[in-house]
Each structure stands twice: as C-alpha cells, then as structure tokens.
Amino acid sequence: MVTKTMNKKFYILLLTLMVSCIAFSQQNTTKTTTKLIQPPYLKAGDTVAIVAPSGVLKNRNDEVNRAKKLLESWKLHVVIGKHVFNQDDHFAGTDQERCEDFQNALDDPTIKAVWSARGGYGTVRILDNLDYTTFLKQPKWIIGYSDITALHNQIHNLGVQSLHAIMCVSLPKDLSEIEASISTFKNTLFGQPLSYTLEGSKYNKTGTTSGVLVGGNLTILHTMLGSKESIDTSGKILFIEEIGEYKYHIDRMLQSLKRAGYFEDCKGVIVGDMSKLRKNTTLWGTSIEQLILDALSDYNFPIAFNMPAGHEDDNRALILGRNIDLKVEKSKSTVKFEE
User: Fold this and answer.
1) Helices (H) and strands (E) in the chain, counts
2) Which one is catalytic: 116, 242, 311, 333?
3) CATH ID of 195-337, from 3.50.30.60, 2.40.30.20, 2.102.10.10, 2.130.10.10
4) Which of 146, 170, 181, 333 does the annotation list as catalytic?
5) Over the chain, what is the mean pLDDT?
6) Is 241 a known active-site residue?
7) Comparing C-alpha atoms, which of 281, 282, 280, 304 is closest to residue 292?
C-alpha cells in the first residue's frame, strides 16, 4: 500500500515537472521570436518631422536646411519643430520645449517619421515625460543615433522597431562624401531589403546566429541599467558603438553590463565604430578589439567587428528591433535583415 502511494506521488511529481518544462520552453520561445511592430515604410508625399531632443544646434542652421532639402528631393514633406533652434545652456531648448516638439511629432497623424537633428546629451531628461499612447496606435519611424539610443531603448521596450541612422548634423556640404550612409538611410526608410557584408578581422569570434538586433551607444546602454529603459538582451544580438572614451572606461562599462547579466542569454555582438578613443597616461596595453574580446570571453556567442555604424562619416542604417541573421568569419561577416 505504501509502495503504491509512493509510486502515485512520484508520477504526479514527474507529470508536474514535465508540464512546467513545456510551459517554460513555450514561454522562452515566445520571448525570443516575438516580432516587434514595424512602422509603415515611407512613400512619396509622406511627412517627416525634424526635432532636437538633445544638444543645442548653435550655428547648425545650414545642416538642418540641408536635411530638409534632402528629404524634399525624395518627394517627402518636412516640418521642423518649433523649438529646434532654441538654446537653454547645453540643450536645444528647455526640457519642456524639447519634450513638446517630440511629443507633437509623436501625436501628429500626418507625420510618418521623426528625425533627430543631433545627439550630444539631453534625451534622457525628457524620457519620463513622453506619452506614447497615440504613437502605439500609429507607429512611425524614430531616427537617430548616439544620445538617441535612449529613445531607441524606450521604443524597443514598447515593442516597436526604430532606425539607427544618420542625423541632420551628419550631412556635409558635399553629400557624395557620405553617399553610402545616405543611400542606406533612404533605402531603409522606403522599404528596400537591407544587408551588409563587413570587412573581416582577425579578432572576429566566428559563428552563426540569429535574433532581434538591439543596442546603440555603449555609454547610453550602460546608463540605462536599472531603469525601465534598460533592454533585455535575451535571445537578441547587441550592437555597440562609442566615441571619445578611454579604453578603461569602455572596459568598465562592459564589466558593469556583464555583472548585471546583460550578456547571459545574448545571441551575438556586432561592434561598430570606436571613434576618437582617448589616451590615458597609463596605456591600456591591448587593442580595443582585444579589450572587447577579453571582457566577453566567458560567452560563446559570435562577435563581429568592423560594422560601419557610429560616429564616423560612414554610418550605415540599422533597423533596431528587426530580426537579423549574422554569420561571422575571420575573412568577413554578413548581416542580413529579415524582410
């Protein structure tokens, strides 16, 4: 009798564990394969808003006008935020003014994309005052890089794709100097297929993977830790870029992210430009590539270097929140965005 009772309890326990495992597996599958909402691609006649949620645009009228003409050459209409050229010390207007321009662009049903004029610093100061209720009913492309990573994070966590690409101040007088950056920006906005073949690197950590692309500026990703804008990279591929930092600063940020579990279930890393790195009086001793490999040595996912995206003239468009296939070899890497 005792044996029969024990056997019955054992089978009930076994059945419970099996059901739990199946439920956990299904939950994880949903988590890593759920597609984010894609805003509609642009077409001739659509309207793009230019706003400045971050740093001041002092003496940058020419670049903004250049951006306006570029969009108009693509048969798009352009509206410029009311406060774009305002200045409040470091910022393009007060927090309230910058938030107002961005909120108006989010809520206006005639606007199909919101293009940030520049980065710098300041976006984080308006995050908590933005209301995405109308935006989620009618998603639109949010465009920019650098400090705009804060917005990309916020929008990603709302379940919507966004566009890591050039900003208005990226445009030189001779647009042919950044032809590749402009063409990938335009092609992506208008829905052309997107893929890249990256220059090889002896530092590449080889492998093949797929997942949703997330990320942006490393400093901003690091400063989002502990907030609701921090991204869960589980099942995703992380893109990082940086400018003007010491190598030990970059290592410190990677170590902080690592200790916070940022890379535990990550599927891969794509490294963009590490621009204008500063030299400390005590030299780090290795290349920036080796620094990154060392910081992430505990993980088996592939790592691709030489993605032309970040704070250089060649700044190719990336759709954040889109599934990609990544193949990393020593001789080259390929990045293919799902259509």
Assistant:
1) 9, 13
2) 311
3) 3.50.30.60
4) 146
5) 92
6) yes
7) 304
